[in-house]
Amino acid sequence: MEINSNFFMSLALKEAWKYQGLTYPNPAVGCTLVGANFELLALAAHQKAGNPHAEVLALQSAYFKLTKNETILHLTASSDIHTFLLENHKNIFKDTVLFTTLEPCAHEGKTPSCASLIAQLGIKKVYIGSRDLNEEAANGAKRLVSCGIEVEMGILREECEALIQPFIKWRERNFVFFKWAQRLNGTIDGGIISSFASRKNVHAMRAVCDLLVIGGNTVRTDRPTLDARLVNAKAPDILILSREKDFDRTIPLFSVANRKVMISESLEGCKEYKNIMIEGSSKMFELTRDIVDYYLCYLVPTFGGRDMFTFGDEKLNILNVLQVDEDIMIWMKKDEDYEHSK
After folding, report:
1. 103/226 same-domain check
2. Three-state secondary structure call for residue 337
3. I need a surface site. Which of 14, 174, 312, 316 has the fewest CB within 10 A?
4. 23-49: b or e for each residue (b if 16 or more CB lie within 10 Å)?
5. Secondary structure, 3-state, 148-195
6. Residues 228, 149 within the same domain
């Protein structure tokens, strides 16, 4: 019986997408660890820059499952987990198989090398989705092979590359995503729409964004704060896209500490930032369509309101769907084939 590599890689992908938008400047990465009898030992994802990588979290979880030693569960620093595993593994991983959406890192940075850890634990085989193009961290697969670990590349490669597009874009120029929330009937007006869990997720994304772009009419009508208070984090800078430069300065977003607020009728200011979120209505969707890489919609199971989120001739491809509390969170990108066929 052969292992179903696509199935186990798809589990890693789904786990990683839960943290898309939260790992900047690191890529979102998922990992599964499978036992000798094809049983799932662990499923994990990288959650935040500076925290343990997906492979380390999966190995930590699997170690506890195999040994019932709770000591490892109390460790949070990646270096501490690495050290504990190397000193206590007793070859328990020799028949396990690891799946990771991105080539394990080979360099020693804020966290130790995942490729080195995997090799020293003697894992039987490693399946990798996409190759790491970051020169500093690359060649993890080469290191594994040199240590006698069997490696197979390119499992669900296109899906894994879609997952790390933000990371690729950050290295090239910047990554821009457009976010909105709508009810089932397509309306976006009438106050708060999405659940608390969804709003907290958005605030966590704002906390790692450099810049948030918003329309002038939205600022005047909604009088928003646009901070990251639900996660007690720093708010991003703001670019208000507006021909009119006069705003009521008592609108809360102007009084948030340690942020820059720009008012411009162009998007030129975006070039100075790496990780950019755009929030807005149909008009903002149209104005920014040429710079947006991904779209993020929170679909809420309610009806009401009057103003619809509508746009012209456009087709989007769904990258991932996740339920957040009662809402549905959908990551999408433009359908390039459809764009070219117009």
Report:
1. no
2. helix
3. 312
4. bbebbbbbbbbbbeeeeebbbbbbbee
5. CCEEEECCCHHHHHHHCHHHHHHHHCCEEEEEEEEECCCECCCCCCCC
6. no
Burial tier of 15 (Cβ tally within 10 Å: 0-12, 13-18, 19+):
buried
Residue 150, domain extent = 5-169
Of 182, 183, 227, nearest in space to 203 by CA: 227
pLDDT digits (tens, 9 = 90+) for 243-294: 999 999 999 999 999 999 999 999 999 999 999 999 998 899 999 999 999 9
Domain shared by 198 and 156, yes or no: no
Question: What are the catalytic residues?
Answer: 55
Model confidence pLDDT, tens digit, residues 212-242: 999 999 999 999 999 999 999 999 999 999 9
Domain-ending residue, one of 169, 186, 213: 169
Contact status, residue 129 vs residue 155, Cβ threshold 8 Å: yes
Answer for the pair 265, 145: CB distance below 8 angstroms, yes or no: no
Look-up of token digits 């400047």: 25
Please check whether residues 277 and 323 belong to one and the same domain.
yes
The answer to whether residue 337 scores a pLDDT higher than 90 is no
Same domain, 98 and 160: yes
| 300-313 pLDDT, tens digit each | 999 998 888 887 77
Position 71: which residue type? T
* pTM (predicted TM-score): 0.93
Q: Tokens for 44, please give them.
A: 């994990």
Domain CATH for 23:
3.40.140.10
